[in-house]
Amino acid sequence: MSVAFEELDYQRTALGELILQRRRALDLGGREVFEVKLNGEYLMTSLFHEGEEALTHLGLAELSGDGWDVVVGGLGLGYTAAAVLGYSQVSRLTVVEALAPVIRWHQQGLVPNGATLSDDSRCSFYLQDFFALVRGDGFDPENAGHRFDAILLDIDHTPDHPLNPSHAEFYSEEGMRRLRTFLKPGGVFALWSNDKPQEGFMGVLSRAFERVDGHVVEFENPIQRNTAYNGIYIARL
Which of 22, 112, 125, 220 has its CA 20 to 30 A from that of 208? Predict the structure, then answer.
């Protein structure tokens, strides 16, 4: 990278204006940073991804055996999905993403995890609305109702702050009960949140699943120069 700032892609999408940009963080020694903005707001950055990776590690830690069939809802910059592929027990990974440009960034190698995901035969991209699939026949386009070992979700900011108002119903008890129909016995649903786990949504999960835990992920935010926190919800059958 020879320039301090570069806009790699700009697209108008169903969710609004989507921008992928790359810059050198001069206050961090010229570190290369990839950022995604949606409607003028920062959606994600490559500067810190501890929460996205913890979503994978905490979720898959609940599984045993091998031959795992995993769904990741929300591709983003690919950190959750790349962490999934780090597990040799995973036999198939389906990444559900509603925005075609985001998939294209990875296929074209525009983002750091692009080659990791695109070159791994276990991984496939499914261009669909995750929430619509929950209301429908699930995440396998060739096998309606197919059940998975784990479903890892990182799309909305928090359960009560969705990117789109149409997502809100998913976070109800009814939505959680629909989701669990796509999990195998002993399967795991894991959810990333920009906030620490909240009692209200923990209660929703506990009414739909047998076992529920909330985890706090702590990391340093070099932009704000402080300690930041994400939340991970884990629900098991």
Answer: 125
